[in-house]
Amino acid sequence: MKNFKLHFLVIILVVISELIGTISIPLGAGSIVLLPMLYAMIFGILITPKFLKIANEKDMDDAGSLIGLTLMLLMAKYGTNIGPTLPLILKSSPALILQEFGNVGTVLLGVPIGVMLGLKREVIGGAHSIAREPNVALIGERYGLDSPEGQGVLGVYIVGTVFGTPFIGMLASFLAAYTSLHPYALAMASGVGSASMMTAGVGTLSAAYPQMEEMITAFGASSNMLSGLDGIYMSIWVALPLAKWLYRKSYRLKYGVLPDLTEDEKGDE
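== DUF3100 domain-containing protein ==
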């Protein structure tokens, strides 16, 4: 907390990123949307000791220690947004409320492939969800962010920030242009629990269907809000236990033995 150099660097990166603003790059029938969060991530990588050496190893360690604190503040902010929108949640259709069951597909696909590629316990943190802020906080509380599970969820979080936002924008453009899916359905699908990804998807759809912009934004925001609200419970009760179970099965299939169990997993047996 007393590393003033670190705080100064963060402020500078945030100001520069916000000054650049959102950039939309036309691509075929749609566009790629670049948001300030992406610039901040790239600038943060460039100032590390491996590149410009503006930040040193101590700065990086201090920044890592503040992740939990900043996530707590973000979760508190989410909490203040949920209360006033409860009437909207109650009026939402079953499709919005039950959409988090789609997260199970991430586990079923990601865990076996990750194990086959040689990943170990990192795959539990990385593949139990799309690894956004609430999921990072969950893994940090359960295992610690210095654990293999923590490294997995942080790795996917960074990849999602760098590649997920433009990917969602391009995917929304492609589906809107070349499929018969309704724009409202695509807006709901954009609300995966990431504000940056939702903004990219909704922005692309709004540009394609300007006459529906208000409803597209409403569906996207509602979907994203519900993903943040019920997504964490889906991770706790369904996705994370399923990821751990599937990891054991996949590990045994590849190596012929069960993986070593941590104290947390022994308690699950």
